[in-house]
Amino acid sequence: MISNEKLGLFLEKTQEIAKEVGSFIRKERQGFNLKTVEHKGFNDLVSYVDKEAEKQIVDRLSVIFPEAGFITEEGTNTTRQEQFNWVIDPLDGTTNFIHGLPVYSVSIALMEYEEVVLGVVYEVNRHECFYAMKGGGAFCNDTPIRASQAETLAASLIATGFPYYNFEQIDKYLEALKFLMRSTHGLRRLGSAAVDLCYVASGRIEGYFEYNLNSYDVAAGALIVQEAGGTVTDFAGGGDYIFGRNIVATNSHIHVEFLTELIRIWS
Fold first, then answer.
1. Could you tell me the CA-to-CA distances from 242 to 75, 200, 222 in Å, in that order?
2. Fold of 4-144
3. Which residues are registered as beta bridge partners of 187?
4. This prediction's pTM
């Protein structure tokens, strides 16, 4: 068990790292050349910026907590440890970054065994640093944040992420979109799962759902939602949302209503 004092120190240092790496990403975007983009798979894009940002994060986190392992998107360090692991997405929203759309972020979480105990998401363009440690509340730029108080789907704005590969469940997904179009204030697709989760936490949207995700997409943001008073589950209503490839996050008030319809559609 890590002490709150030590966790607080790690949280402070992680914010510094996320902001500094965010500054690097912002600077690189100014002269970014599309010819440097690589394809990891169908519609799965990566650039030297992703790779260099991850290297910077891993190098600095290794200094502040050398006992911890890593789960990283770009594979800079894949040495996992039993108790502590950093979960890193150096540039969540790479496609937005490549095309010059201003929603992308740095996402860093620390897991103790299977539990996220620290999360930092830095939205690069708005200079917003969202963060939380377990049991300590959620914040944006040092101001406490809380999830929305909307009580029904009819009073809610919902975010999602479109599948860009593995379209086997696309019919169910489109059915969910049809339902939500008719039942909410509207739908948004921002392009960064980490930011979507932080917007649930800060009350800007009431809910978010997506499938085909990885742990580094959601680990930090999920904790921030929970510490802001929200609820996070997988599509079945369980707790396998970090590694289970799908997630539903809400302000808590609409969770049962939202999840009931999602289970109906996805079953």
1. 18, 17, 8
2. Fructose-1,6-Bisphosphatase; Chain A, domain 1 (3.30.540)
3. 158
4. 0.95
Greater pLDDT, 116 or 31: 116
Specify the DSSP element, H or E, that contains 52. Answer: helix 48-64
Amino acid letter for position 88: I
Structure tokens at 240: 């396998």
SS3 25: helix
Partners of 188 in the β-ladder: 159
Residues of the chain with CATH 3.30.540.10: 4-144
Average pLDDT of the chain, as a whole number: 94
- Write the pLDDT tens digit of every residue in 61-76: 999 999 999 999 888 8
What is the fold of 153-266? D-Maltodextrin-Binding Protein; domain 2 (3.40.190)
DSSP-based three-state secondary structure for 14 = helix
